[in-house]
Amino acid sequence: MRIGLLTGGGDCPGLNAAIRAVVKRGLGEYGHSIIGFRNGWKGVAEGDVMPLTRNDIRGVLDTGGTLLGTARFHPHSADGGLDAVRATLEAERIEALICIGGDGTLHAASKVAETGTKIVAIPKTIDNDVAGTDRSIGFDTAVHIATEAIDRIHTTAESHNRVMVVELMGRSAGWIAVQAGIAGGAEVVLTPEEPFDIDRITRYLKHRHRAHASFSIVVVAEGAVPAEGTSMEWETKYGTFGEIVSGAVSERVAEEIAARTGFDTRVTVLGHVQRGGTPLPSDRILGSRFGVAAVDALQQGHTGVMTALRGEEVVLVPLEEVAGRAKPVPAELIQVANALA
Amino acid sequence: MRIGLLTGGGDCPGLNAAIRAVVKRGLGEYGHSIIGFRNGWKGVAEGDVMPLTRNDIRGVLDTGGTLLGTARFHPHSADGGLDAVRATLEAERIEALICIGGDGTLHAASKVAETGTKIVAIPKTIDNDVAGTDRSIGFDTAVHIATEAIDRIHTTAESHNRVMVVELMGRSAGWIAVQAGIAGGAEVVLTPEEPFDIDRITRYLKHRHRAHASFSIVVVAEGAVPAEGTSMEWETKYGTFGEIVSGAVSERVAEEIAARTGFDTRVTVLGHVQRGGTPLPSDRILGSRFGVAAVDALQQGHTGVMTALRGEEVVLVPLEEVAGRAKPVPAELIQVANALA
Amino acid sequence: MRIGLLTGGGDCPGLNAAIRAVVKRGLGEYGHSIIGFRNGWKGVAEGDVMPLTRNDIRGVLDTGGTLLGTARFHPHSADGGLDAVRATLEAERIEALICIGGDGTLHAASKVAETGTKIVAIPKTIDNDVAGTDRSIGFDTAVHIATEAIDRIHTTAESHNRVMVVELMGRSAGWIAVQAGIAGGAEVVLTPEEPFDIDRITRYLKHRHRAHASFSIVVVAEGAVPAEGTSMEWETKYGTFGEIVSGAVSERVAEEIAARTGFDTRVTVLGHVQRGGTPLPSDRILGSRFGVAAVDALQQGHTGVMTALRGEEVVLVPLEEVAGRAKPVPAELIQVANALA
Amino acid sequence: MRIGLLTGGGDCPGLNAAIRAVVKRGLGEYGHSIIGFRNGWKGVAEGDVMPLTRNDIRGVLDTGGTLLGTARFHPHSADGGLDAVRATLEAERIEALICIGGDGTLHAASKVAETGTKIVAIPKTIDNDVAGTDRSIGFDTAVHIATEAIDRIHTTAESHNRVMVVELMGRSAGWIAVQAGIAGGAEVVLTPEEPFDIDRITRYLKHRHRAHASFSIVVVAEGAVPAEGTSMEWETKYGTFGEIVSGAVSERVAEEIAARTGFDTRVTVLGHVQRGGTPLPSDRILGSRFGVAAVDALQQGHTGVMTALRGEEVVLVPLEEVAGRAKPVPAELIQVANALA
């Protein structure tokens, strides 16, 4: 079989583990040809191919990023995009496609699958908001990096008696914020799931600093918003992607806290480091398992499905049940974050 | 309520997160008294108490080990052990007990629960072999440390054209070996679950070194054994605990490989570092969630249960379904390890 | 002897190692009393004391920040500041003072020494710009954190074909930028020592991207400025402290690069994480050696001196030779950074 | 110029940074050809060449090991070794040689230099015992890995009330043991420089455990030996290399401690992980500086010299002043280790 392979959307740690697994399983076990496309769907549309051999995947297991490159390009949104994809797949005699990506890539995958192409998708996103799977590739490493940053900021907060506001990724879901908030022992965690009341927060911080502590950590997901009718207005309207300005909400939150409490308040916007570097073992393992499972799924005749982690098992779920749906942070996790603040 | 709290068995990262969560939830939310016992069941038998306040849990979230201390002591195996436990619980007016531990501690917990004491258990073990839960506290960090060691040994293996044998923990189950083996890209992974054939392994290594590589990593769980009837005999008989000598099997395996292949072969026994140091976020989060859940379970009147992770949820499972049962590595994971070698 | 001890200026990793060493050496070897002051010179002026015992320094060797707290307060700049310091030292019967700090603290130390107080100083600053010593406490760890961030950003730059601009600390000297730039393999490093020409930089980036690479890392010290007469104007005038706005120069540099090259260009401002977290061994060792040396220096009757690292030795240098002088990055290091770009 | 390049002896982190710098500086700045030899002097003797291009050094800055491979082979000790080296250098028209290595490689370099070959050497050794330079490539990373291990073992020691004996590398000098011992807060540090008295050590441990602590860390360099006339005999005689058996001394020390104190005592032999993995920034920087300096030295006509770090400067020292001389740990460092125990 000639299997096409692409990585789309933002890069993250663990992608190379998945690429390696697809090549090792597809080429090594079944003798398939694995044809990589550069830069996600863009490379498919443009016919930018990179046939993958054992040599290409040597030494990549513990590296971040994606050796195939990636881009934020959606063929179904671009003029003639789906036709260009179709043309390349025919020209390259691709019999099936493995797509590694987040919400946008999965949505494109389901559109392309509708045109008759055999497709198996693999979920990756540091935001962990892909539905149908307990975890996506890249999330655990992002939480680790964010937690490490909070640990570091903790010692400064304590030494200087400061309120430190830390902005983490998460436009539509607060997974990183909640998990890194629990792991880093944050006093306040603001997420898109639960619009916040700045008055309640500053009252809590004042109470805490009076009672027993002289510093606090406030973790803010970049998509956090104030609740309607609370005293902090927030003029900007957000869409799902792209319009959120990095640093905007945390700067505003810090100003409000400083103004209401008088505490020395500082902001850190963690930014791009959250998606880079050496993947944690769990992301290497997840990428490896999903890569093997995707090739096996094609071998067994599956199409229009996504590999997913459910408890300790890797299963297949229909793409249509998944694409376009988000996965909010469960109430229990948010409750733990609040209970331990 | 007066709640007793203990940590038993080998120490691991994430215990302090659980202790902190029990104190914050129990004392902060419900106003319970949390009475710690030093050094596991030994401290209960001896009446060695340490009432826990908010001060005791300050700054412990990101620390390894257990602030309560621990010991390998099983009251039901010691003369008069259960009576001593009973006496202390009465003297201290303990109304319920939260026990954090692995197989031995859980077994003791179920024995003590039979005497009428209210008990909720929290599973911890770097070996991840407690049944009924996807993960136990400490496992993820142990896999991380083991993988980091393999990554390091990898560069030496490659620079010197060596076979490096790495012995990891795991007496009755090969969880660390399999996960760190996949994450570290090991060529061979030997586990207690699958007795090995040294001839097959050395044939594979010779083939690999002839074909394309000049080095290999062989990961060995300390409880790995050769299959009956294969050419490597293994005189020692192992019990479940304690009789396995650290380094024994890896030294033997290395000798056999060197003798049959002529390759420069070296051994590293990773040992105690696998249970120490800063917990990964996932172990801090698991400890935090289990700690909150254990207190809530007592509050709701549960007893004789263990907190457990199932997919994305924390649930309660009856202790009797869990104690004494092991949890072997699933076939799919072992298959991934083999597929990617 | 009653020895006062304070940490001043920004916090950094390795301070607790120095505090621990002062207590262990002073109290344990010579039987001195060690009287800590909270929050730097502010605590001296306000008489905010914290007598230090062996218990206070237990478990702090590998922790960031300072257990004494710190503040940016200079007694010689505050009304009646020196008198208040003097009054506290008398009231507490302090016979000598050990001051751990950067340029500001050392300057204050030399002023207080002039009033007759016995003083030994210990240099700390993540910026490494204290004269007279090869290294100050905190620098190596800051370089490590900055390098790790560049490593992470590297994989994203490569996966997305981007120019990544990374702003690191360094207002008056580019030590962190140059060392992390070399260690992280940055293509361009901008420092306060060498005003930059944005045209030359963008020509180089265009050449590089045409020739063989599709991504670049540009490291910018926060005190970097464009050279006079070059095409990028820079209205703001900087003083030595405080007026530099975090992120300002890197945002401008990124805009100019994007405008002139058309490359997708992103900014990361690393910020506070550079001063936090677990100290590297070299900072724990430097803090330990300086702490022991400072107590020994007082014991031997020295005053008005600073502990310093020179090659492999710890020596004492007169405070007056050091205070107020900066230490620029040597030309050889900058040349290596450029040679390897 | 055609410059030969080799890495000899044990591998360590930072070698690839030096190789990269030699190629970038030699090829990029001066247009030289850089001819790598595989596996150290063995590759020179066997004519095993690998011409190095920019492509070969892409992405290697942050990797451990050596892309050239290495071996413990000394041409002056092998029959016809120097002649074979000479023959290869002529056949490959090598005009100068850059040798990266430790004591053995430097000794070989001085022998080969005597035959008229232009040679510049670069010191590397995790043991840091090369004379003439403050630091050798690989040492800082080894100390970091060893310290991290001690940090991890610390939490286990404390949780279980144990004496943990940790064996670190260092056959003829105790650099790693002393620095990691200080950084990790070890109670006892045994080095080759100072033969130990087991009675004094066990008395100290008993005193400590009675007084205030219930655990201890004992760091042992693998070349540590008991002092003559003390109660612990040590039959084995050691040479400078090779005859020391890994784990031997630490096992004996642990047995003696357990027998005399009754404390639960465990051994960890850290082994090969000390030389592997991602180099710390300081080793990447040192490798980069030495690589640039070595090429520049050849360009300026130097031969028979070694690059060296002295304080903040890179200088050249004559090979004859260096080869065959060891560099013991200075007394001040050992004193700090003891003072803070």
Automatic annotation (TrEMBL), chains A, B, C, D:
It is an enzyme of class 2 (transferase). PANTHER family: ATP-DEPENDENT 6-PHOSPHOFRUCTOKINASE 3 (PTHR13697:SF52), PHOSPHOFRUCTOKINASE (PTHR13697). It is found in: Cytoplasm. The keyword Kinase applies. It catalyses: beta-D-fructose 6-phosphate + ATP = beta-D-fructose 1,6-bisphosphate + ADP + H(+). The keyword RNA-binding does not apply. Catalyzes the phosphorylation of D-fructose 6-phosphate to fructose 1,6-bisphosphate by ATP, the first committing step of glycolysis. Its main location: cytoplasm. Its EC number is 2.7.1.11. The active site is at 127 (proton acceptor). Residues 2-298 form the Phosphofructokinase domain. This is ATP-dependent 6-phosphofructokinase. Belongs to the phosphofructokinase type A (PFKA) family. Mixed-substrate PFK group III subfamily. Pathway: Carbohydrate degradation; glycolysis; D-glyceraldehyde 3-phosphate and glycerone phosphate from D-glucose: step 3/4. One of its GO terms (molecular function) is identical protein binding. ATP binds at residues 10, 72-73, 102-105.
